[in-house]
Amino acid sequence: MKQRDFLIVGGGVVGMAVAYGLARAGQGVTVLDESDDALRASRGNAGLVWVQGKGVGMPRYAELSLESAKAWADFAGELTERTGIELEYEQRGGVDLCLDAEEARSRQADYAELQNASRYMAANFRWEYLDREALTSCLPGLGETIPGGTWSPHDGQCNPLYLLRALYAASRALGVETRPATPVERLEATAGGFRATTPQGQFTAERVILAAGLGARQLASGLGLTAAVRPVRGQVLVTERRPPGGRLPTPQIRQTASGGYLIGDTHEDAGLDKGVTLAMMQSLAEKAVRIYPDLEAARLVRSWGALRVMTPDGHPLYETSTTHPGAYNLNCHSGITLAAFHAEGLAEAIRDDRLEQSFPHFSGARLHVSAS
Ligand SMILES: Cc1cc2nc3c(=O)[nH]c(=O)nc-3n(C[C@H](O)[C@H](O)[C@H](O)COP(=O)(O)OP(=O)(O)OC[C@H]3O[C@@H](n4cnc5c(N)ncnc54)[C@H](O)[C@@H]3O)c2cc1C
After folding, report:
1. CA dist 135 to 97, 113, 148, 153, 372, Å?
2. Which residues form the FAD dependent oxidoreductase domain (predicted)?
3. Cα of 211 to ligand 1 centre, how many Å?
4. Which protein residues are within 6 Å of ligand 1, measured from CB?
5. Is 4-46+161-228+313-367 in CATH node 3.50.50.60?
């Protein structure tokens, strides 16, 4: 059997966006994924396609987020055309709420700095601070104790589960072989490429991409790649379906296409525990009612916890192994927002083996972590 061009370890939104992009460019790809009990950020996230707040301290990340958000409409349209799956994507702008005056002050200072950080940002990044009164037109019924928030037209939302489903469907239609319940136990270099050992047998390819989220911690160092990601837990609450509120999405709370409000932006150091806690759910519910007092009467119907995939500085890691050419490691905590870029620019750079040249800011070298 002909050896595949690429093995991708990890069938989350990062691995599948790159698989889709590579397959679209004619590459032969096999994706190996774990089973349903694995840690999977792609199945527990908030579904925001979000530019605000990205890249503070690293303007190139802000640019990448903005570029990806701009490409999202075409990306979503193409996936729907190929698969018939609607991603519930919309880009009507979004608001990041400031819950007190200090948050409002420091946010505005950060964004002003970001806007001056490069010519691209100065020309393209649009945002505005709106006080409570101004916000009520885009967030009707906003609570009286919210002082304001930053608005940006670039922000939007999607259904992240439909995104993942569409990426699988589109990739398979392009010939990508997807193997669920196939955990990779060992990755090693061979004479002609790489070999993955799993309980279901061995798989080989000329090149290998680690898109294993937190699983990188077990597999990366063997190929000279950075294994420095850590889990950051987020808990999410969902209300019953409510009539359309005409409210722009916020990272704190957003109304989904089916009517439920998705509440949650917690960032917790809880190790590998992806459970929920009563204290955190209570605090989320209180914050939701502070933002939209009419939700006091809403029933909660679901809750979950999920683990973010966090690099040491919080910025994406796009890495090529120096000790094992042809091995790559991809980690980021904004895989929904960046999906359009991952399927396009990132997949092309990997195909052409110019990842470090094209995206040097995101190399593992910046982390000063020796890959042992
Ligand atoms: C609560 C929460 C809210 C979030 N909200 C947003 C948001 O609004 N917008 C946004 O852009 N991002 C958001 N994110 C981040 C986003 O979900 C992640 O960036 C993205 O899902 C990461 O995708 P991934 O494919 O790298 O990781 P994962 O989804 O974790 O996928 C990794 C895959 O690798 C597989 N794997 C691991 N080890 C192995 C192995 N040894 N063998 C085979 N397979 C393996 C796992 O089974 C898994 O399927 C949020 C995350 C959380 C937790």
Report:
1. 10, 23, 7, 14, 51
2. 5-348
3. 9
4. 9-15, 32-34, 38-42, 44-48, 50, 183-184, 211-213, 215, 219, 234, 236, 306-309, 332-337
5. yes
